[in-house]
Amino acid sequence: MNVWSISIRNFRHKPLYTFLSILILSVSIALLLAIQQMEASFKQQLESNLGNIDMVVGAKGSPLQLVLSSVLHIDNPTGNISYKEAQKLSKNPLVKMAVPISYGDNYKGYRIVGTTNNFSILYSATIELGRAVQKPMEVVLGAAVAERFDLHIGDTFLSSHGLAEKNDHDHEEPLTVVGIYKPTHKILDRLIVTDLNTIWDVHHHEAAPHDTHEKEITSLLVTFRSPMGFLTLPRNINSNTTMQAALPKYELERLYQFTGVGVKTVTWIAYIILIISCITIFISLYRMVRDRAFDLALMRTYGANVPQLVKMVAYEGLLIVGIAFIVGILLSQIGLRFIFEMIMDQYKQRVPLLLNYKEIAQTGALALLMVLLAIGLAISPIIKMNISKILSHEK
Amino acid sequence: MIKTSGLIFQYDERDLVFNFPDISLGPNENLLILGKSGVGKTTFLHLLAGLLTPLEGKVEIEGISIHSLSNRKMDRFRGQNIGLVFQKNHAIQSLNVFENLKARLFFANKAISNTIISDLLEQLDIIDCRSKKVRELSEGQLQRLGIAMSVIHRPQLILADEPTSSLDDDNCEAVMQLLIDQATANNANLIVITHDGRIQPLFQNSLTL
């Protein structure tokens, strides 16, 4: 028998109270953690999808659309640009690497990107099986695509025209799988990479021959040699050419600002829930201290000193927080797994579930701080307790 | 052994002043203090227990002037040397009978012995209730538990505040007899305050406030 074991008896004495306190606190902790983690995951996902792309050059239009389509591969392209002009830009001394990409086709909803072998460098990707593309009509698959359709080296498939999944127009020439990338957890995982010529061949072999038709690409992904590039190149391109330049990082910042309002609102709701749950804990502890005033006074007559009683009540509060915190983490992880599972299905993308210890620690510290405050307020009557008065008013 | 001298108490500066008679009890002596409500019976008892501090005068238990002790020492002294019996609330609600007695010994900083607890519960005829929560006990059982709580740590002084006022005649006599027996068995002084005239014949010494 010691202070701790009495705390545990008290903890179990009114199970409904205890259960409700734990429930409300754990839900608020779970919400806070889930929101933080989701925001961090999406941000990290988006940022890692940028790879080493500093600037994207495409047809005039919305810069955000250009970034969404050419970098994140989730929107339609703004249009096409001349390959010749793009190549001219590639020779600019501020440009370290320029990778052209060209769209046109999909395989069951997964985009086929015509590009050069430098494309994989942007994502620091390596080929796990097979080899890189060497000639038209060969493709290397992103890890998610290979897994989804169970495609292997040497398999062939027919692409469909356009970027979205529809069955109206299949191309007749089959594409051959020659390689599969290692999973990168970036956008590359759900792309099918091929040679620029594949796209051109597929789309123009029925029309005019290559040499009479000016070659076009969708956009050019650029890596700068120095930060100087950020200052001069985009403005130069936007004012002097028919193309537009967009900076992915800047556009994404804008995107966060749009979507951030929602995230912020939910975060504030979670904080409010946390505050409410702390108030609940305060009320339940305070009520406990008041309901058990006689018990506590009795313990003082048994020889218990004030620190022992404070410890007893504090242990009970901490027990509630501790359990609520563990339950909260579990709830948030289960909830997130469920949400990400859905997202993977919908967007064909693997979003890494990263358990951010720093954020867990921060949320934990916040919850602990607020609960300590609640405990402190609740047990203050113990310190000021007038034993004689409580004992002489027994009911 | 308890001795008081010149005890004066006042709750608030504007309140009336209580003047208490001096008492002195030798080994194994018991005292019944009678009085109507409002004359300061409970106040007197709380002064004796060190729960209130007198304006003037002192209380000596086993030669120690208890009001000169620091708060912490007072808590410890009270826990080890004094046993209190109340009218209705006798033990901690969240613990069962056995656990209450263990807690009583723990807070008094005394060794916890299951045999001593069982023996006492047996003497008081509540051994069958050992695993019951406090709220599951009858009035009579509760008062027996109250007695157990006041003597388990072998105190020098047992102070009882209206211990019988909620008991019927049968239980009243049985409980008082048990309390007196336990006080004698522990070589403790027993002081009972009450307005219950039923128990007067059980005491040699009595005092009316």
Spell out the blueprint of helices and strands:
The complex is a heterodimer of chains A (395) and B (209).
Chain A: H1 3-13, H2 15-49, E1 55-59, H3 63-70, E2 81-82, H4 83-90, E3 95-107, E4 110-115, H5 119-122, E5 127-130, E6 138-141, H6 143-149, E7 156-157, E8 160-161, E9 175-181, E10 192-195, H7 196-204, E11 216-217, E12 219-224, H8 228-240, E13 243-246, H9 248-291, H10 293-302, H11 306-347, H12 357-383, H13 387-392
Parallel strand pairs in A: 4-10, 6-9
Antiparallel strand pairs in A: 1-12, 1-13, 2-11, 3-4, 3-8, 3-12, 5-9, 6-10, 7-9
Helix pairs in contact in A: 1-11, 2-9, 2-11, 2-12, 9-10, 9-12, 11-12
Chain B: E1 2-9, E2 18-19, E3 24-25, E4 30-34, H1 41-48, E5 56-61, E6 64-65, H2 71-81, E7 82-85, H3 97-107, H4 114-123, H5 139-151, E8 157-161, H6 169-185, E9 189-194, E10 206-208
Parallel strand pairs in B: 4-9, 4-10, 7-8, 8-9
Antiparallel strand pairs in B: 1-2, 1-3, 1-5, 5-6
Written overview of the protein:
The complex is a heterodimer of chains A (395) and B (209). With 395 residues, chain A is an alpha+beta fold. Chain A has 2 domains: 3-47 and 255-392, no CATH class; 55-246, no CATH class. Chain A contains 13 helices and 13 strands. Chain A has helices at 3-13, 15-49, 63-70, 83-90, 119-122, 143-149, 196-204, 228-240, 248-291, 293-302, 306-347, 357-383, 387-392, and strands spanning 55-59, 81-82, 95-107, 110-115, 127-130, 138-141, 156-157, 160-161, 175-181, 192-195, 216-217, 219-224, 243-246. In chain A, the strands form 2 sheets. In chain A, strands 1, 3, 4, 5, 6, 7, 8, 9, 10, 12 and 13 form an 11-stranded mixed beta sheet that branches. In chain A, strands 2-11 form a two-stranded antiparallel sheet. In chain A, a hairpin with a 2-residue loop joins strand 3 and strand 4. The longest helix of chain A has 44 residues, at 248-291. The model of chain A has no long low-confidence stretch (mean pLDDT 83). Chain B is an alpha/beta fold and 209 residues long. Chain B has a single domain, classed as Rossmann fold (3-Layer(aba) Sandwich), CATH 3.40.50. In chain B, 33% of the residues lie in helices and 21% in strands. Chain B has 6 helices and 10 strands, in the order E-E-E-E-H-E-E-H-E-H-H-H-E-H-E-E. In chain B, the strands form 2 sheets. In chain B, strands 1, 2, 3, 5 and 6 form a 5-stranded antiparallel beta sheet that branches. Chain B is globular. The two termini of chain B are 21 Å apart. Chain A binds chain B through residues 1-2, 6, 9-10, 12-13, 292, 294-295, 298-306, 308, 387-388, 391-392, 394-395, and chain B through 42-43, 46, 49, 51-52, 71-72, 75-76, 78-80, 82, 84, 86-89, 91-95, 99, 102-109, 112, 149, 161.
